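Reopening this ticket.

The earlier resolution said the output was attached, but the attachment link was broken on my side. Pasting everything inline this time so it's all in one place.
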Amino acid sequence: MKKALFPVSLFLLLLAVAILAGCSKDSTSTNNNNPPTSPTNFTASQASRRAVNLTWGAAGADSFQIQRSPDSTSWAALASTSTTSYNDSTNAANRRLYYRVKGSNANGTSDYSYTSLWTLPGVWDFSSSSQLSNFNLEELNGGSTYSTWTWDQNEGTNGAGLFTFTSPQDTQRLARIVTTSSNLMPHDGWLESKIKVEQWHGTGADASYASFFIERNPNDPTQGVVGVFFSADSTVLAYTVTSDTLRRLATNPTLPLLSDNAWHTVRFFHSAGHWDFYIDGTRVWNGDIPNVLDGNYQVYQEWQFDKGTATGNQRFWIDDFANNHALPAAVTMAEEGGRNLDGQVIATKSTGAHIK
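Inline output:
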């Protein structure tokens, strides 16, 4: 009788093992039947001018779908990937971009996770001579040619644009470098450039000037202009509204002077009628400028140069260098009312009149 019990005991033992194994399998199957949860820690960062790096955490998904939007409303498919990162090299400079990502597996799809960032400002780092064609050279005094626009591979970060007054005579000359119509930028966001002046000449009405303008139409100042004038003895921030007349916003000593033979960064940030002005990384003015460059359109960037009455050649270098900016604290400054506008008439833009 006892010998007959052994097979029964063995059977019961094997049955118990099978039941336990089945429970374990059912438990695993239950987990796999769930769709993934939303991706975690979704972030966007920018290490170069044309690449946004997207990263997120895995959450039970086998693949991920990424979408991009310019306004957080209209979404377009960007990519699908099985990894937890993606490099978006198709973005544009100086834009607010919105991204979202969701995960999928055989059992369904997660909700989206969202992130956004401002892309780096500017599109010209002058790493090659071909970028000179993004600007038009215009001489504004008439007469024979008196300036050149060339590439200098030994200046700037990876090279720089070089504007030279070649006229040796003791006469005032005015010229400008203006972005072409195919290289416009949105009026909201960062707008910046770097400038190096070989040597400032003269003072007052005889001075040489370099002026940086943000404008809707370089040939029609009545459509609105915000700009800054630099010379040996003055720095003046100004604007126009519905006329060619420039009105002062601020000047030195509130605004610093630019030394010659050194690189300086000039930067604007514009958001919903509020402006912030930076020189070499320091915000030196902020305030609301009513009815100037508001609306849904793009703007030109212009460097204008005035030779003054100095003799000999004069050289100005332009470059566009940008770091990875977060939205500045100044975006909320409009709530504080900004600064009062000075409003004093100082010059006219179209004739290049010197700052009064």
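Reporter confirms the inline version is readable. The longest strand covers residues 96-105. Residues 1-5, 23-31, 323-338 have pLDDT under 50 and may be disordered.
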